[in-house]
């Protein structure tokens, strides 16, 4: 049971998993390695004899060591694969929900939020968490979910199940070129998404890093002066912090380390300075119809 009062079965029943193939792949291989380790344990002496027949000059102690070492490595590999499958499943369901609740707490006053944006909304866990917070505060605000994939129908279905469909709309678009004007949103959030941008250029290349920085720049651009940005992401958060400092953002805060998807992750939150004017100001009008 998570901090939110929901267990993983409830969350999974509504949202499912985006990348269910990975834990299944890991689980299958964990079962294979477990079976091999059991075979090594059950047929240890015959395996030692086979090694001795293949390498007649090898001492008996060495053949037993080789069989025992191989069996141990196989068993350890099975344990690691089981752990990886469990961690990825947990990260995609329960942890993602719990991190969404933590991200909400980084915004000091939701009652004044009129326009919010979730960059890389996926199936809508964070998107709907924002919508539920707006509903709880009695706000007339709305939240836009943006994703490059055509997931709008499934995302709106989850919003309907959560009872917040009137607070949510979806747009298809590229986070590197957000389809919104300057100074549009009071709050911009993103969960475990920015690290995926530019992966086609190589995970550790300068080009990929530049693409991620473009996303950070776009988040700042569409925030209203005084608006709050909250990003939970994997591995690259220190890069985002450096970029935010270069852009003179205020109240930059980084959470403690949380292991997600087998790597380190952090939440970074910041406020856009009230005097930070990227473009023209004025009343913002957004079309909430899907």
TrEMBL record:
<dbReference type="GO" id="GO:0008757">
    <property type="term" value="F:S-adenosylmethionine-dependent methyltransferase activity"/>
</dbReference>
<dbReference type="GO" id="GO:0009820">
    <property type="term" value="P:alkaloid metabolic process"/>
</dbReference>
<keyword id="KW-0472">Membrane</keyword>
<dbReference type="Pfam" id="PF08241">
    <property type="entry name" value="Methyltransf_11"/>
</dbReference>
<protein>
    <recommendedName>
        <fullName>Methyltransferase type 11 domain-containing protein</fullName>
    </recommendedName>
</protein>
<feature type="transmembrane region" description="Helical">
    <location>
        <begin position="24"/>
        <end position="45"/>
    </location>
</feature>
<dbReference type="InterPro" id="IPR029063">
    <property type="entry name" value="SAM-dependent_MTases_sf"/>
</dbReference>
<dbReference type="InterPro" id="IPR013216">
    <property type="entry name" value="Methyltransf_11"/>
</dbReference>
<feature type="transmembrane region" description="Helical">
    <location>
        <begin position="65"/>
        <end position="93"/>
    </location>
</feature>
<feature type="domain" description="Methyltransferase type 11">
    <location>
        <begin position="117"/>
        <end position="229"/>
    </location>
</feature>
<keyword id="KW-1133">Transmembrane helix</keyword>
<keyword id="KW-0812">Transmembrane</keyword>
């Amino acid at each position: 049971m998570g901090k939110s009062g929901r267990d993983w079965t409830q969350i999974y029943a509504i949202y499912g998993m985006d990348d269910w193939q990975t834990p299944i792949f890991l689980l299958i291989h964990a079962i294979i390695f477990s079976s091999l380790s059991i075979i090594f344990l059950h047929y240890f002496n015959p395996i030692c004899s086979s090694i001795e027949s293949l390498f007649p000059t090898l001492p008996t102690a060495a053949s037993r060591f080789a069989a025992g070492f191989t069996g141990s490595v196989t068993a350890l590999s099975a344990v690691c694969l089981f752990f990886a499958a469990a961690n990825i499943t947990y990260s995609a369901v329960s942890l993602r929900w719990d991190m969404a609740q933590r991200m909400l707490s980084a915004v000091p006053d939701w009652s004044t939020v009129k326009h919010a944006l979730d960059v890389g909304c996926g199936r809508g866990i964070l998107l709907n968490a924002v919508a539920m917070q707006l509903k709880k505060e009695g706000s007339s605000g709305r939240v836009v979910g943006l994703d490059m994939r055509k997931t709008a129908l499934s995302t709106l279905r989850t919003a309907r199940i959560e009872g917040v469909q009137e607070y949510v709309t979806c747009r298809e678009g590229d986070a590197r070129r957000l389809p919104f004007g300057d100074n549009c949103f009071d709050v911009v959030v993103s969960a475990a998404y920015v690290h995926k941008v530019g992966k086609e250029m190589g995970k550790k290349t300068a080009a990929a890093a530049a693409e991620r920085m473009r996303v950070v720049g776009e988040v700042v651009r569409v925030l209203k002066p005084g608006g709050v940005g909250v990003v939970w992401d994997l591995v690259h958060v220190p890069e985002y912090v450096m970029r935010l400092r270069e852009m003179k953002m205020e109240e930059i805060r980084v959470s403690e380390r949380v292991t997600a998807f087998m790597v380190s992750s952090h939440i970074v939150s910041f406020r856009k300075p009230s005097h930070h004017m990227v473009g023209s100001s004025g009343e913002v009008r957004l079309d909430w119809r899907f």
